[in-house]
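Chain A, query sequence.
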Amino acid sequence: MEADNWNINSNPIATNDAIITLYRINALDKSNKIVQEIVKYLESHDSFDEQQKRWLFAIESNKDYPHAVWWEKKDSDGINGYNPTVSLATFLICFGENKSYYEDIVRNAFLFLEENEDISGDSLKCFLLSYELLSKNEIKNIIRN
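Chain A, predicted structure.
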């Protein structure tokens, strides 16, 4: 899914890219087997930091496959703001089971967005997808419009 990261393992960034693609082709539906498998993967909290309540941007196994340098974890915790957390959490609100847990994550992410002007393009992409998913699924009680 990422041209500059060939990691064959499931990872949050590639999963987010898959969700974006499914959204663009209007294939996000609870009956879609791919959507069901994404829900299973995300609910497993693989590559999720329980303390910070965020999915990792960079995962350890990236180093085992061809990749651009920014996909290496190095000395950081592997977290990059709310990229891809805000869109993955919103996806789970729309298609998963434990909605209230993820509602708090999305609420906090949008509060962060309101308070910060310096947001990267990739992070904005995640916020836009989150907003689109909430709007399309008529979920109104999480963020201010």
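The longest helix spans residues 99-115. The helical segments are 12-24, 33-43, 85-95, 99-115, 121-136.
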